[in-house]
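G., the chain you wanted modeled:
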Amino acid sequence: MKKRSKRYKILLKSSQKDKKIETKEAIELVKKNSTSKFDESVDVSLRINLKQTKGGDFSLRTTVNLPNGSGKKNKIAVLCEADKVDEAKKSGADVFGSDDLLEKIAAGKLNFTKLICTPAMMGKIGKHGKVLGPKGLMPNPKLGTVSNDIAKSVNDFKKGLVEIRNDKDGNLSSTIGRKSFSTDKLAENYKYFIDCVKKEKPDTIKGEFIKNSFITSTMGISYKVGAK
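Predicted structure as C-alpha coordinates:
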Protein backbone atom coordinates (compact mmCIF):
# COMPACT_ATOMS: atom_id res chain seq x y z
CA MET A 1 0.00 0.00 0.00
CA LYS A 2 1.31 3.43 -0.96
CA LYS A 3 2.29 5.54 2.05
CA ARG A 4 0.81 9.05 2.06
CA SER A 5 2.84 12.00 3.33
CA LYS A 6 1.81 14.01 6.38
CA ARG A 7 1.24 17.03 4.14
CA TYR A 8 -1.05 15.06 1.81
CA LYS A 9 -3.11 13.72 4.73
CA ILE A 10 -3.64 17.28 5.96
CA LEU A 11 -4.78 18.39 2.49
CA LEU A 12 -7.30 15.54 2.31
CA LYS A 13 -9.14 17.04 5.30
CA SER A 14 -10.18 19.98 3.12
CA SER A 15 -11.34 17.73 0.26
CA GLN A 16 -14.88 18.29 -1.02
CA LYS A 17 -14.99 14.89 -2.77
CA ASP A 18 -17.51 15.11 -5.67
CA LYS A 19 -19.32 18.18 -4.35
CA LYS A 20 -19.50 21.01 -6.89
CA ILE A 21 -18.39 24.37 -5.53
CA GLU A 22 -18.32 27.92 -6.87
CA THR A 23 -15.26 28.94 -8.93
CA LYS A 24 -13.76 31.49 -6.55
CA GLU A 25 -14.23 29.21 -3.56
CA ALA A 26 -12.42 26.41 -5.40
CA ILE A 27 -9.58 28.75 -6.34
CA GLU A 28 -9.23 30.02 -2.76
CA LEU A 29 -9.05 26.44 -1.47
CA VAL A 30 -6.44 25.55 -4.10
CA LYS A 31 -4.34 28.59 -3.17
CA LYS A 32 -4.68 27.83 0.54
CA ASN A 33 -3.51 24.25 -0.03
CA SER A 34 -0.55 25.25 -2.20
CA THR A 35 1.86 24.90 0.70
CA SER A 36 5.03 23.96 -1.19
CA LYS A 37 7.91 26.44 -1.30
CA PHE A 38 7.72 27.10 -5.06
CA ASP A 39 5.08 29.04 -6.98
CA GLU A 40 2.77 26.15 -7.93
CA SER A 41 0.77 26.33 -11.12
CA VAL A 42 -3.01 26.41 -10.86
CA ASP A 43 -4.51 24.02 -13.40
CA VAL A 44 -7.91 23.26 -14.84
CA SER A 45 -8.89 19.76 -15.98
CA LEU A 46 -11.97 19.15 -18.10
CA ARG A 47 -13.84 16.12 -19.34
CA ILE A 48 -15.44 17.01 -22.66
CA ASN A 49 -17.99 15.23 -24.83
CA LEU A 50 -16.35 13.88 -27.99
CA LYS A 51 -19.33 11.93 -29.36
CA GLN A 52 -20.64 13.44 -32.59
CA THR A 53 -23.89 12.47 -34.26
CA LYS A 54 -21.86 11.84 -37.41
CA GLY A 55 -18.25 11.87 -38.54
CA GLY A 56 -16.68 9.99 -35.63
CA ASP A 57 -15.29 11.39 -32.40
CA PHE A 58 -14.40 15.08 -32.22
CA SER A 59 -10.84 16.18 -31.50
CA LEU A 60 -10.08 19.60 -30.02
CA ARG A 61 -6.75 21.31 -30.50
CA THR A 62 -6.40 25.06 -30.26
CA THR A 63 -4.80 27.91 -28.32
CA VAL A 64 -6.14 30.17 -25.57
CA ASN A 65 -4.67 33.61 -24.87
CA LEU A 66 -5.35 34.01 -21.15
CA PRO A 67 -6.19 37.63 -20.22
CA ASN A 68 -3.83 37.59 -17.22
CA GLY A 69 -1.20 35.30 -18.70
CA SER A 70 -0.26 31.83 -17.52
CA GLY A 71 2.76 32.66 -15.41
CA LYS A 72 4.71 30.06 -17.35
CA LYS A 73 8.02 31.20 -18.80
CA ASN A 74 8.56 29.86 -22.30
CA LYS A 75 11.96 29.79 -23.94
CA ILE A 76 11.03 30.72 -27.49
CA ALA A 77 12.96 29.89 -30.65
CA VAL A 78 12.30 31.47 -34.05
CA LEU A 79 13.26 29.71 -37.27
CA CYS A 80 13.20 32.16 -40.18
CA GLU A 81 14.88 33.26 -43.38
CA ALA A 82 18.39 34.68 -43.02
CA ASP A 83 17.22 38.23 -43.74
CA LYS A 84 14.68 38.03 -40.87
CA VAL A 85 17.05 36.84 -38.15
CA ASP A 86 17.63 40.40 -36.92
CA GLU A 87 13.85 40.90 -36.71
CA ALA A 88 13.57 37.70 -34.67
CA LYS A 89 16.31 38.92 -32.33
CA LYS A 90 14.55 42.25 -31.76
CA SER A 91 11.22 40.47 -31.15
CA GLY A 92 12.51 39.12 -27.83
CA ALA A 93 12.99 35.51 -28.93
CA ASP A 94 15.45 33.56 -26.78
CA VAL A 95 16.83 31.50 -29.67
CA PHE A 96 16.81 32.50 -33.34
CA GLY A 97 18.38 31.50 -36.59
CA SER A 98 17.95 30.14 -40.10
CA ASP A 99 19.88 27.19 -41.53
CA ASP A 100 22.21 27.31 -38.52
CA LEU A 101 19.24 26.71 -36.19
CA LEU A 102 18.07 23.87 -38.43
CA GLU A 103 21.46 22.21 -37.98
CA LYS A 104 21.12 22.45 -34.19
CA ILE A 105 17.63 20.94 -34.36
CA ALA A 106 18.93 18.11 -36.54
CA ALA A 107 21.63 17.46 -33.93
CA GLY A 108 18.99 17.23 -31.21
CA LYS A 109 19.91 20.54 -29.54
CA LEU A 110 16.38 21.57 -28.58
CA ASN A 111 17.13 24.19 -25.94
CA PHE A 112 13.70 25.84 -26.17
CA THR A 113 10.12 25.13 -25.14
CA LYS A 114 8.32 26.68 -28.12
CA LEU A 115 9.33 26.89 -31.78
CA ILE A 116 7.92 29.57 -34.08
CA CYS A 117 8.57 29.17 -37.79
CA THR A 118 7.97 31.44 -40.78
CA PRO A 119 5.93 29.87 -43.64
CA ALA A 120 8.94 29.98 -45.96
CA MET A 121 10.91 27.69 -43.63
CA MET A 122 8.21 25.07 -43.17
CA GLY A 123 9.46 23.08 -46.15
CA LYS A 124 12.83 22.68 -44.44
CA ILE A 125 11.53 21.86 -40.97
CA GLY A 126 9.14 19.15 -42.17
CA LYS A 127 11.73 16.35 -42.20
CA HIS A 128 12.41 16.97 -38.51
CA GLY A 129 8.80 16.28 -37.56
CA LYS A 130 9.64 12.88 -36.05
CA VAL A 131 11.90 14.63 -33.54
CA LEU A 132 9.83 17.75 -32.90
CA GLY A 133 6.35 16.20 -33.02
CA PRO A 134 6.56 13.90 -29.97
CA LYS A 135 7.96 16.80 -27.92
CA GLY A 136 5.10 19.10 -28.94
CA LEU A 137 7.49 21.45 -30.73
CA MET A 138 6.42 21.02 -34.35
CA PRO A 139 5.15 24.39 -35.69
CA ASN A 140 1.46 24.44 -36.63
CA PRO A 141 -0.46 27.30 -38.33
CA LYS A 142 -3.58 26.55 -36.24
CA LEU A 143 -1.60 27.01 -33.03
CA GLY A 144 0.01 30.32 -33.91
CA THR A 145 3.50 28.89 -34.32
CA VAL A 146 3.69 29.43 -38.09
CA SER A 147 3.64 33.13 -38.84
CA ASN A 148 5.28 35.97 -40.74
CA ASP A 149 4.42 38.33 -37.88
CA ILE A 150 7.32 37.23 -35.71
CA ALA A 151 6.99 39.99 -33.10
CA LYS A 152 3.29 39.29 -32.46
CA SER A 153 3.80 35.53 -32.20
CA VAL A 154 6.70 35.86 -29.78
CA ASN A 155 4.79 38.40 -27.69
CA ASP A 156 1.69 36.17 -27.52
CA PHE A 157 3.63 33.20 -26.17
CA LYS A 158 5.64 35.36 -23.80
CA LYS A 159 2.41 36.74 -22.33
CA GLY A 160 0.81 33.36 -21.78
CA LEU A 161 -0.77 31.88 -24.91
CA VAL A 162 -1.44 28.24 -24.02
CA GLU A 163 -2.03 25.27 -26.30
CA ILE A 164 -4.77 22.79 -25.43
CA ARG A 165 -5.72 19.42 -26.83
CA ASN A 166 -7.83 16.51 -25.60
CA ASP A 167 -6.75 12.91 -25.23
CA LYS A 168 -8.69 9.95 -26.64
CA ASP A 169 -10.90 9.77 -23.54
CA GLY A 170 -11.96 13.42 -23.70
CA ASN A 171 -9.67 14.70 -20.96
CA LEU A 172 -8.26 18.18 -21.45
CA SER A 173 -6.05 20.16 -19.09
CA SER A 174 -4.14 23.42 -18.96
CA THR A 175 -2.60 25.89 -16.56
CA ILE A 176 -4.57 29.05 -15.80
CA GLY A 177 -1.91 30.78 -13.71
CA ARG A 178 0.15 30.49 -10.53
CA LYS A 179 -0.71 30.44 -6.83
CA SER A 180 0.83 33.92 -6.57
CA PHE A 181 -1.94 35.27 -8.84
CA SER A 182 -4.88 36.93 -7.10
CA THR A 183 -8.12 34.96 -6.84
CA ASP A 184 -9.82 37.47 -9.17
CA LYS A 185 -7.16 37.06 -11.87
CA LEU A 186 -7.33 33.27 -11.68
CA ALA A 187 -11.14 33.37 -11.80
CA GLU A 188 -11.01 35.63 -14.86
CA ASN A 189 -8.54 33.28 -16.56
CA TYR A 190 -10.72 30.28 -15.68
CA LYS A 191 -13.89 31.85 -17.08
CA TYR A 192 -12.11 32.92 -20.26
CA PHE A 193 -10.65 29.42 -20.68
CA ILE A 194 -14.06 27.75 -20.25
CA ASP A 195 -15.71 30.19 -22.68
CA CYS A 196 -13.01 29.49 -25.29
CA VAL A 197 -13.50 25.73 -24.97
CA LYS A 198 -17.29 26.08 -25.27
CA LYS A 199 -16.88 28.08 -28.50
CA GLU A 200 -15.07 25.08 -30.01
CA LYS A 201 -18.15 22.87 -29.66
CA PRO A 202 -19.24 21.66 -33.13
CA ASP A 203 -22.91 21.52 -34.13
CA THR A 204 -22.59 17.74 -34.51
CA ILE A 205 -22.30 17.27 -30.74
CA LYS A 206 -25.57 17.28 -28.83
CA GLY A 207 -26.04 18.12 -25.15
CA GLU A 208 -23.44 19.46 -22.74
CA PHE A 209 -19.96 19.84 -24.22
CA ILE A 210 -18.11 20.14 -20.90
CA LYS A 211 -19.07 17.22 -18.66
CA ASN A 212 -16.90 18.00 -15.63
CA SER A 213 -14.45 20.68 -14.55
CA PHE A 214 -11.82 20.52 -11.80
CA ILE A 215 -9.29 23.03 -10.47
CA THR A 216 -6.09 21.91 -8.76
CA SER A 217 -2.46 22.92 -8.23
CA THR A 218 0.85 21.22 -8.93
CA MET A 219 1.12 19.58 -5.51
CA GLY A 220 -2.47 19.94 -4.30
CA ILE A 221 -5.81 18.19 -4.47
CA SER A 222 -8.58 18.97 -6.95
CA TYR A 223 -11.98 20.58 -6.50
CA LYS A 224 -14.99 20.08 -8.72
CA VAL A 225 -16.33 23.36 -10.05
CA GLY A 226 -19.99 24.18 -10.48
CA ALA A 227 -21.66 26.42 -13.06
CA LYS A 228 -20.69 29.82 -11.59
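The chain has eight helices and ten strands.

Shout if anything looks off.
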